[in-house]
Amino acid sequence: MTMVYSLFLGPIAIALVIVQVILVSNYLALMDTRRDTDKLGALVLGNVFTTLNLNQFVVFTQTINIFQGDTNIRLWRRITSAEFLVDTLPNFLIDRSIEILDYIFIVACFFIPFFGITIVQLIFAGQNGFAYFQPYFKELRKMDEKELRKVYYQNYSKWYLYGVACAVIESLPFLSGYLQPSLFVGASLWSARELKEEVKLRTKKFGPIQPQEST
């Protein structure tokens, strides 16, 4: 990278490379952190809803092993089913192909000084913003992948705007990792406000909503 920059920028190439490495390292660290934030997001969501006296709506299910019993038989039935071959497998291959292309594009942007990371953040702002709301839709609404995809595209402008706002915090080297939980808090507060509005509308139409009981 230093050699490439030095061809165009001369002596300042070394300083520019150092700054670029810091920005890229910060972005990669955030990408890796997002993979393990499901539990954090669910925990923040539960605490926020409890603080706002909405804990009666927070019913989290325990993880169930779908391969209980004879694993080989269940797995074979699953991968040979019509749903898997016609729907699940093609969607999986398409999603993985898109991810590979995304990674190639991101790596190419890493070589653009300063603006490379910004370009990546703006392009993927919708996905990044929606990631902070997924605990609400997954844990509370119990949505599957198809329903999540529908919600994502129906409210894309909302996720994009929130993703752009998150990009400002995520762009702060050394501080973004400490401030990332606050983004889950913001998403949880936003979700709580929408849930309150929905409860009010349903209460006017159908009467008080009975709280759910955990099983």
- SS-based structural class? mainly alpha
**Would you report the number of β strands?**
0
Discrete helix count: 11
Mean pLDDT: 75
**Poorly predicted regions:** 60-73
> What helical percentage do the residues reach?
over 70%
Strand content: under 5%
Question: SSE order, as H and E?
Answer: HHHHHHHHHHH
Keywords: Membrane, Transmembrane, Transmembrane helix
Quick gist of this model?
The protein is an all-alpha fold and 215 residues long. It is built from 11 helices and no strands.
Helix-strand layout with pairing:
Elements: H1 2-9, H2 13-34, H3 38-51, H4 71-79, H5 82-109, H6 115-123, H7 125-131, H8 134-140, H9 145-154, H10 156-170, H11 176-206
Helix pairs in contact: 1-2, 3-8, 3-11, 5-6, 7-10
What do these coordinates show?
- With 215 residues, the protein is mostly helical.
- The protein has one domain (1-62, 71-204).
- 74% of the residues lie in helices and 0% in strands.
- It has eleven helices and no strands.
- It has helices spanning 2-9, 13-34, 38-51, 71-79, 82-109, 115-123, 125-131, 134-140, 145-154, 156-170, 176-206.
- The radius of gyration is 22 Å and the shape is globular.
- Mean pLDDT is 75; it is low at 60-73.
Descriptive keywords:
mainly alpha, 215 residues, transmembrane helix, 11 helices
